[in-house]
Each structure stands twice: as structure tokens, then as C-alpha cells.
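Retro notes
What went well: the complex prediction finally ran end to end.
Inputs used:
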Amino acid sequence: MDFYKANEKRYDDMIYRRCGRSGIRLPAISLGLWHNFGSVDVFNHFIQIAHTAFDNGITHFDLANNYGPVYGSAEENFGRILKKGLGHYRDELIISSKAGYDMWQGPYGNWGSRKYLMASLDQSLKRMGLEYVDIFYSHRPDPRTPIEETMGALVDIVRQGKALYVGISNYDDVQARAALAVLKEHKVKCLIHQPKYSMFERWVEPKLLPLLEEEGVGVIAFSPLAQGLLTNRYLQGIPEDSRAAKSTGFLQLNQVTEEVIAKVRRLNEVAIGREQTLAEMALAWLLKDDRVTSVLIGASSVAQLEDNLKALKNLSFSEEELNTIEGILA
Ligand SMILES: NC(=O)c1ccc[n+]([C@@H]2O[C@H](COP(=O)([O-])OP(=O)(O)OC[C@H]3O[C@@H](n4cnc5c(N)ncnc54)[C@H](OP(=O)(O)O)[C@@H]3O)[C@@H](O)[C@H]2O)c1
């Protein structure tokens, strides 16, 4: 493949939204490398997905230490993509990584200790060939490590210049409040929270979103398509190349139930009425809320990514559409 040169019109159509009360604006759609970029996937295929993303103004790429499989391979592959030209645009990119889930053997390769977070970020930087990441996250709260230790590590990572900003992921409102308080004491801003949020997963709505708004923390919703359930992927059964069918996929076959698909069919009818695909509507439904800075999608093909980008053409909903959707989701 020739050295990559980005589309000159890449900033024409993307919408950028301010991340909480910060200086950073993120694209309304960001690309995650949890699946589809590992050592089990095909390089010439996923590099096209990454290039299509940036060519359309997706400036934010989200990784974690253990994305793959195998663990670490998504970061290695992203490092290769950067070397093949995307890295030329480093100052136009927001690259994130995380640590918090199992990564290596023994007592120091998981959860939230200073030892783990510091070592893991050093490994991530090496795999991606970067001097710093833009955002480093505590990937999940650790009930056995004092929050002062986990957040203290994030503070020092910023002071060392290895991350420009920090974030938290999978923290509920009580855990988030405690984490934000420690960061505030150290005068390090929590830029962003990364929770699971979609039409099918709405735990953030009652308490977490109001807290983050009050604190000026941005929100990036992960698995906004419920790993593909909120698309047309499973309307005619389970395709062989789908996440649910793959042994390496996190979507389990037993999650694709008749009851879920019945709801998906009804949602799909609403989407058709809006002249959108269901994937487009599911993303638009999240982005109708200003508190959601960005939706963090996955894509196994360029066509899926291009479909998802079209969501930005219609982010508004009539009262009637919203009520119909609520009725289906109830
Ligand atoms: N912080 C955390 O704990 C955490 C956890 C999970 C994810 N994340 C982040 O969130 C990112 C996204 O997660 P996700 O991959 O679960 O997101 P998702 O967008 O909910 O699901 C992506 C999958 O949906 C299907 N899909 C996407 N667009 C489609 C379209 N237009 N039409 C039909 N099918 C479509 C594809 O499935 P097929 O592969 O079947 O084609 C794709 O792999 C991750 O990469 C990661 O960065 C974070």
C-alpha cells in the first residue's frame, strides 16, 4: 500500500462537539478498535477502515491495552497504521488508551494499582510507537484499591507528559464522584467518562449524566449499537461473519434472542420512516442529547462506517418518534 495521504475535505461534514468544559472538541462519531483490528483480523482490510474514518473527519481513535485478540495487537496494528502515513497527522488526532482489565499474568497486570497503570501505559506507548496518548483512562473502578491511588497514578501520568488528559470508564455515579474529587484536589481535570450507553443500555440516564454535566465532564458512549444488535445485522438470522457468530467476539449468541430481535424489527420500522438505517437512527438517538459528546462505534467494514457517518445528517426527532421508540424499548 502507498503512503497514506488524507482527504483534503476531511473536515467538511463532521460535527465536532465540546468535551464537557474543556478546550477539546471531539468528532460526534469516534472509532473504537476493540474488535476488528486484532491479530485475528486482516491488516489491509482494517487500515482502510481507519483511513476512511480520518478521511471523514473522525479524529478520535480509541484503544486499550488488551484490545485484540491477542491482547496488545490492536495497539500494535494501530502503530503500524500510524507508520504507514496516518501518524503524519498526529497533531490532528486524539488517541486514547486504557488500563483496568486483565492484561498480563500475576498480581500487577489488572485492576487499578499505580504499578499496573504506569507499566501498562508504558507498554501501550511502545506498541503504538507514541511518545504520549491524548487521553488515558482508568478502564474500570477497582473496589480494592483506594481511589486516591488510582487517580494519583493518572495525575502523575499527566505530569510526566505521557497523557495530555485523563478519563474514567465504567464508573457509576458514586464512584465517578469520588474519582473526580481526587482529581480536583490535584488540579487535574477529568476530561471524559466512557460508559456503555445505547437504546438497550440506559443505566447512565438517571444519575451519571446529570453528574457529568454538572462537573463539566464529557461523555463518550461505547457500544452505541449494542455491538451490532441495533443494526440490520441480525434481522435475517445470524450471519457467519458477524460478531455474534465469531468465537473471538464479545457478543454472545444467546444475547440475540427472539425478544430482542422483535424490538429491533419495530425500531427498524421507525428508522425506515425517518429514511435512516437502524444503525443511523440508534446513533442519532444518542447524539440528540448535548451531554453526549461522541458515540464510540466499532465497524467491521468500510460500508458500515460510511453508513454510521450518515447518522449526522438527521439528529433531530419528533415527539411522536421519541414516544414510539420509548414504547418499543419499555
Ligand atoms: N470502556 C469499555 O469498557 C469499553 C467496552 C466496550 C467497547 N468500548 C469501546 O467502544 C468501541 C465500540 O464498541 P463496539 O464495537 O461494541 O460498538 P458498536 O458500534 O455497538 O458495535 C460495533 C459492531 O456493530 C456492527 N455494526 C457497526 N455498524 C454497523 C452498521 N452500520 N450496520 C450493520 N452493522 C454494524 C459491526 O458488527 P459485525 O462485527 O458483526 O459486523 C460492528 O463490529 C470499542 O471499539 C471500544 O473502543 C469500550
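What we learned: The pocket of NAP is lined by residues 32-36, 62, 139, 169-170, 194, 222-228, 231-233, 242-243, 279, 296-300, 304, 307-308 (CB under 6 Å).
What to try next: split runs per interface for comparison.
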